[in-house]
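sry for the spam today, last one i promise. C-alpha cells for design, 218 residues
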C-alpha cells in the first residue's frame, strides 16, 4: 500500500467514514477554544488561525501522550501544541495547557478544572480536533460538560490533503475505523451521548475492519 494514496477499492468506504465524523458546525465566536491533543499538529495550527480571526480570547491545549503520539510529541501533545501556536503568533497569556489527559473525557473534564482554577466559567466552547474526532468529541462533551454550548471544528482539508499531510494512509484509516467504533462503544459505556450511526457508515466500517484495519479497535 502506498503511504499516502488511498487504495481505489477502499476509497468509498473511507470517504463515508470521513464525511460521517464531520459535524458541519458553522463556527461563531465562543468563550474558549479547546485544542484536543492527538498526533495532528494541524489542531494547533487551526486554533491559532481562529484565534487571529477573533473567534475566542482563550485557548486551552489538552493532552499528555498516547502510543501514537509519544515519538512525534515527546514532551506531550499540549506542550507541543502550545509551542506551535506561539510560533504562529498567539500570545502566551492567551494559552493554557492541560498535560495529564489521556482520553477525550479527561481532556474535557481536566480543561474545565483548569478554567475554573483561573476563574473562567465558559458558556460556550469550540472543540478543535483532528477531522474524524469531531463527532466523538461532541458526544463526549455533551455527556461530561453538558452545561456548555459546544461547537466542533477542524482544519478544512479534503480527505486526500489530510492523508498527504499525515503521510500515512494506513494510520488515518485505522484511526477512522477506531473512532467510528467508539461512537457506539463509548455511548454504551456511559462515556458519551448516543449518536445515530447510519447503516451505510456501519457497513463501511465493517468492510474496513475485514480488510485488516483493526489496530485502533477497542
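last one done:
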Amino acid at each position: 500500500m502506498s503511504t499516502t494514496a488511498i487504495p481505489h477499492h477502499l476509497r468509498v468506504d473511507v470517504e463515508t467514514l470521513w464525511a460521517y465524523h464531520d459535524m458541519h458546525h458553522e463556527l461563531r465566536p465562543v468563550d474558549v477554544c479547546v485544542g484536543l491533543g492527538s498526533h495532528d499538529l494541524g489542531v494547533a495550527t487551526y486554533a491559532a488561525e481562529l484565534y487571529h480571526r477573533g473567534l475566542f480570547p482563550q485557548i486551552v491545549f489538552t493532552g499528555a501522550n498516547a502510543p501514537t503520539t509519544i515519538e512525534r510529541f515527546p514532551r506531550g501533545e499540549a506542550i507541543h501544541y502550545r509551542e506551535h501556536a506561539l510560533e504562529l503568533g498567539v500570545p502566551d497569556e492567551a494559552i493554557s495547557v492541560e498535560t495529564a489527559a489521556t482520553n477525550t473525557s479527561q481532556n474535557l473534564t481536566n480543561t474545565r478544572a483548569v478554567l475554573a482554577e483561573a476563574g473562567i466559567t465558559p458558556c460556550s466552547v469550540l472543540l478543535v480536533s483532528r477531522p474524524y474526532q469531531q463527532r466523538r468529541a461532541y458526544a463526549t462533551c455533551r455527556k461530561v460538560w453538558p452545561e456548555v454550548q459546544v461547537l466542533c471544528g477542524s482544519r478544512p482539508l479534503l480527505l486526500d490533503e489530510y492523508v498527504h499531510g499525515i503521510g500515512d494512509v494506513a494510520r488515518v484509516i485505522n484511526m477512522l475505523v477506531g473512532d467510528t467504533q467508539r461512537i457506539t462503544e463509548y455511548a454504551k459505556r456511559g462515556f458519551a451521548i448516543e449518536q445515530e450511526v447510519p447503516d451505510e457508515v456501519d457497513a463501511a466500517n465493517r468492510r474496513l475492519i475485514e480488510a485488516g484495519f483493526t489496530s485502533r479497535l477497542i
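The chain has two domains: 8-20+158-210, 25-153. ok im logging off now
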